Each structure stands twice: as structure tokens, then as C-alpha cells.
Amino acid sequence: PISVILGGTNIPLSNNQSLGNFTVNATNDIYTIPVTGRYYLTYQINTTTSLLAGTRLLLNSSTPLPGSIFSPAISTSNYNNNLITNLIAGNTI
Questions:
Q1: For the chain, which residues make up each domain, given as ranges?
Q2: C-alpha distance from residue 63 to each of 20, 52, 56, 68, 82 (Å)
Q3: How far apart are CA 43 and CA 58, in angstroms?
Q4: Rounded CA gap, 41 and 83, in Å?
Q5: What keywords does the record list, in alphabetical order (predicted)?
Q6: What is the mean pLDDT of residues 78-83?
Q7: Which residue of 21, 23, 43, 49 is most buried, as measured by CB atoms within 10 A?
């Protein structure tokens, strides 16, 4: 279980991924972009109970990526989003 805190909670991804040249930090929640380019990003989060919470991807640990923000009007237990964005080598998500 992951405790959700006000202001944001990083969610680690599973260990069974094919990352190619991407690198990931020790807590498995920040990925470094290896090559400048246009990227398709997708995420899905499922919770055990419905929550009135939002999700987003952060660029370089601080800036919400436009198109990645999901803020439902009602409580939900399924959060997912897809976006295409330009990223620079060395950026983190």
C-alpha cells in the first residue's frame, strides 16, 4: 500500500519493465529521458477505494506536464491518461 499525502505522492512503478536506455532512480519513481525527441507517455493507477484525488506527471520533479493532469469531478478508483510531448535528453519524469 502507498499512503497518499496532500500535495502529492510519488508512485513507484513495477520492477518488471523493459526500459531500453532509460534510467530509473533507486525508488523506481523517476525516469531519465535518454534522447531528445517526441514521446508518447501513458499511465494507469488503480486504487483499492474511490478517492477524490488527481494525478499528473512531473517534468524534472517540479513542473506538471500539460496533458498529463487528470482531475476527476467525482471520486474514482481508476486514473489513466495518455499524452505526446517533446522531451530533452536528461529531463526526468
A1: 23-87
A2: 25, 22, 10, 11, 17
A3: 12
A4: 5
A5: Collagen
A6: 95
A7: 43
In angstroms, rounded to a whole number, what is the distance separating the alpha carbons of residues 75 and 73?
7
d(CA 1, CA 17): 20
- Record the pTM: 0.85
Over residues 7-17, the mean pLDDT reads 80
Residue with cell 488527481: 54
Phi, psi at residue 43, to the nearest 5°?
Answer: -145, 155
Give the sign of the dihedral formed by CA 5, CA 10, CA 16, CA 17.
positive
Residue 17 confidence (pLDDT) above 90:
no
- For the segment 63-74, the average pLDDT, to the nearest whole number, is 94
Angstrom distance (rounded) from CA 90 to CA 87:
9
